[in-house]
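Why do we care about 3D structure at all? Because function follows from shape, and shape follows, mostly, from sequence. That is the central idea of this module. The next example makes it concrete: a single protein chain, its amino acid sequence, and then its structure expressed as tokens.
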Amino acid sequence: MPKKRAHNDDDDEEEELMVEDENRENASEDADADEDDTNHRRKKKKHKSKKLLMTQSGQTENDRRILRRKQRELHQDIALGGGGSTAANGDDDEAAGGGEEDIHNLRQQNNELWDDVRYTREAVLDSENVDLIASKAARAAEKIVQVPRYDAIRLAQSLVKKGSVRKGSTTQFNWRNFGLQVGLCFNALPSHVSFLYGPLDAEYTPKERKKAERKKKSTQEDLESENEEEEKPEDVSQTDKNKGGDGNELGAVSKHIKVISKTLYARAKEEHGEAKERVKEYENQLSRDSELDESQIINRKKKFITDNSNVDAVGCLFNPKSFTQTVENVFHFSFLVKESQAGIKARSAKEVEEFGGMPGPVVRPEKTGPDMPTPKQAIVSLNMKDWKDMCKAYQVEESDVPHRMEGKVAKFEKKKSRKSR
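And the structure:
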């Protein structure tokens, strides 16, 4: 019995839970139904108010459709030229602008249609028609008021037509006569003109400035200094300032540039002499080639002498004893290139194969003159490792530019070499 009673209690609890779920479902369904009913009422009310507004305006959809068609037809008439009367005549200007009577008729027709406008859609079409009528009236007003207009092309054509003079078979423009006629426009001064500094014909009187009075020198030394001659700038030299020069002044730089120039000319002269001696062997090699004629052989000989007259740049400028002087030699040589007194180029492998020698950079002196091309310069980097490698590769034992023993750097290197011994 107790077990059966407990079972009955569980059944009662399950029934109560089922009833609660059913009530919740019914409540949610009732809420959805109420919401749908509310939306339906709103739509019905909105439709009713819209329908009421339509009935109050006294227009139906068919009446509005007819009104819009008339407005579009009027818009087309305005664009074509107002009633087609001027367009039929074939006058484009009249069709575009329209007469006063046509504009008045179009405006009156648009006002009659405006009396039936009740909604925004028709009002937009009416505003477009009004805008088109206004622009048409503006063009008609421009035709009534004759304002002179200037066209640059027509003005230029008129000037050419009036100022051209025929001389024989050619036509020329008489600029002298044109200047005399145009000059009259600049001789007259416009009326009611005022200038910032007054009239142009006013006399200018400069203000007198008081001269500065120097104090009189009283001492005897000052009086003696007045009698001494003034030293001019061109008489001043750096050797006067520092007679014990160390080779680092501007005068030393210019002297070293002259040394490099003389060395380059001397080396180029030696190379040129050797090239002339070897050109005979080169000529014998060219004569064996049957495809070359005499003029080609002469040109090849000239190129051979020119190429072999160049001086090896590394052997000339690189100082194997001093990296500092090597940099100075290259830098000072650049001044000769800037002034077109020297040139530098890289000898290609093809030139070496044809004319002999070693590939690499070569320098040469140049003859200055008006026909010389504009010099071109470039910035190159050179570190101590490159300097050592190039001196070793080109087997430079001594530079063509003599090693300098004066100067702070040279003295420091000399002292350093003594210590190493």
